[in-house]
Amino acid sequence: MTQKPLQCDVLIVGGGPVGGVLAGLLTTLPLRVVVVDFLAPEKALDKNQDGRTTAVSWGSSLIMEKTGLWAQLLPHTTPIEEIRVSQALTSGFLHFNQEDADGHPMGFILDNWRLRQALYTMMEERENITLIAPASVKSLECDASQGQAELTNGQLIQFRLIVGADGRLSQIRESMGIKAYTARYDQTAIVTSVQHEQPHHCRAFEHFLPTGPLAFLPVKTHQSSVVWSLQNKWISAMESLSQEEFAQELERRFPYLGKIELISKRWHYPLVMTLPRRMTTERCVLMGDAAHAIHPIAGQGANLGFRDAEILSGLVQNSARLGLDIGEETLLKRYQRQRVRDIVSMTCMTDSLVRLFSRSSQSLAFVRGQGMSWMNAIAPLRRRLTRHAMGLGL
């Protein structure tokens, strides 16, 4: 007996932060939304599966407010009230604070697992969202009137629009024949959580080392999330260190927080930039890391994805109110046109920063230090950079 297809308006492949936020934004209209994720909920919500945090910009917090989730997430966040950027062996630094941000926090640090937990709860509670997990798309067909996906569990889903929010190695991007440009940074991010002797005072630190940028992101008063984007030639040596020895390495390279103790295991994530040649094809759009995987040096990857979700949801809602086809080519092209400038500018900025600070020349280090001091002294430029980091444009 042939299985009856499940009908929906929007099929979102990828139940992570970006796909989940899009689902939440779309539920303000009577649209039927199906979210498919390859991870079983109990695994996706396991703290030991993902040690990363998300740096939610001020602009992204406003987007999350529209989903109705931000009020319950806010008590579990730590505000970023200052950002200090420095480099080893030079005295120059760059300092951003709330005065540059109109008194608002520049962003908030939130555990990935906690964000997923809130999104999964929302998807289970809202009547017009169906979550199917664990499952992935086995085959995909689209034509001028609709699309159909077959899942690995045998379920057929018919849709008007499919969204690939399934990460850097996007299966949807590959299935739809969208080619992507890839650049490997020869770096791996080591992520862990630490407790430190000195309070961070809601400061985020980005410290550039010859081995790669080291970031401390504030969590609790005496705790931070650490992201060390380490050159691959040093990874084996670091992997061989005990927890205590690795903490000593952090202390030696960044002594400003006093004695450091690791309070979680270490996770490793290879760093690769991926940028597809286009973001849309017939009845299909890409967003999040499927549309732009960038280096974590500025903590902006997730925020780019949240802005993707906001733009697409607005376009879909406008078309739905007018009774138009939400998968039509005009809407898809408008989405790509409205997102491409933000994506390309942020990708180029992060890529340039990585390459600039990866060079270990002493004279270049001096120039970088002087450059940071110069930018620090020019308040209007510093404020423009702050607004950009907050997701409020230039």
From TrEMBL:
Top-level taxon of the source organism: Bacteria
Pathway: Cofactor biosynthesis; ubiquinone biosynthesis
UniProt keyword list: FAD, Flavoprotein, Monooxygenase, Oxidoreductase
Entry-linked PROSITE patterns: UBIH (PS01304)
Cofactor(s) listed: FAD
Stretches assigned to the FAD-binding domain: 8-340
Annotated InterPro entries: FAD-bd (IPR002938), FAD/NAD-bd_sf (IPR036188), Ubi_Hdrlase_CS (IPR018168), UbiH/COQ6 (IPR010971), UbiH/COQ6_monooxygenase (IPR051205)
GO biological process, alphabetically ordered: ubiquinone biosynthetic process
SUPFAM superfamilies with a match to the protein in the record: FAD/NAD(P)-binding domain
Molecular function GO labels: FAD binding; monooxygenase activity; oxidoreductase activity, acting on paired donors, with incorporation or reduction of molecular oxygen
PANTHER family for the chain: UBIQUINONE BIOSYNTHESIS MONOOXYGENASE COQ6, MITOCHONDRIAL
Protein family: Belongs to the UbiH/COQ6 family.
Name of the molecule in the record: 2-octaprenyl-6-methoxyphenol hydroxylase
